[in-house]
Amino acid sequence: MDFPIDECGKSPKQLGFRFPAEWEPQEAVWFAWPTRGDLWDGVLLRVREQLASLYVLAARYQTVRVLCPKGAQAELRGLMAQAGDASDVVLYDYQTDDVWIRDFGPLFLLSEDGAELALTDWRYNAWGNKFPLQARDDCAPAWIAEALGGRRFAFETVLEGGAIESNGSGSLLVTEAVLLNPNRNGLVAISEIEARLAKG
Questions:
Q1: How far apart are CA 23 and CA 58, in angstroms?
Q2: Could you please report the per-residue DSSP string of 176-194?
Q3: I want to staple 80 with a disulfide (CB 3.0 to 4.6 A). Which of 21, 86, 100, 191 is the partner?
């Protein structure tokens, strides 16, 4: 059964969770720190400087959470110190393969009363296996759920977070070219994808 279920075998919908809209209040925004020079050939330092500045800027408005391996945290802290106040930036010791956490990271769900946060863990295959060696990114949602002590709903459907939007009231907008591309989910019918999403 390929519906998002938690350890109790129930779907988010059955347990009273919903996928909030992007414009609703947020507790935090997540980023991933670039560590692989092979993916950022010749521009890695500049990318790091720009991202450190972005983290500091975003932290003016809400908490910023960054996946950054322990060995790279001193460099990141130094770059953020040059950019301003980083007191609302929280670092997590996890190394990703790339920075596109919008696509590989968890989608956060909220209980109807707003008291509980949960995470979805979709499969991620680097945009249809366009890039090799991205296994750490696919594992990031499970790691984040454990780090936060949150409920995790996992299933085998490939979905990039940038390919789905919610109005917060049960309607979803998805990118058909992503979900129905054979390099993501094989030869699956749109009705099957819709059924999987509706169960969640």
A1: 15
A2: HHHHT-HHHHSS--HHHHH
A3: 86
Residues sharing a CB contact under 8 Å with residue 27, sequence separation 6 or more, in sequence order = 62, 63, 117
Give Cβ neighbours of residue 67 (< 8 Å, ≥ 6 apart): 30, 31, 32, 33, 92, 94, 95, 96, 101, 140, 144
Q: pLDDT of 32-42, one tens digit each?
A: 999 999 999 99
Q: Would you tell me the crossing angle of helices 44-58 and 70-83 to the nearest 10 degrees? A: 70
The C-alpha angle with vertex 27 and arms to 24 and 29, in degrees rounded to 5, equals 90
**What is the tens place of the pLDDT at every residue in 5-32?**
666 778 898 899 999 999 999 999 999 9
- Tell me the torsion sign for CA atoms 95, 54, 121, 191: negative
Query: 1: pLDDT confidence band, cut at 50, 70 and 90?
Result: very low
Q: Are strands 164-166 and 172-174 parallel, antiparallel or unpaired?
A: antiparallel
User: 0.85 cut: is pTM over it?
Assistant: yes
53 membership: H or E segment, kind and range:
helix 44-58
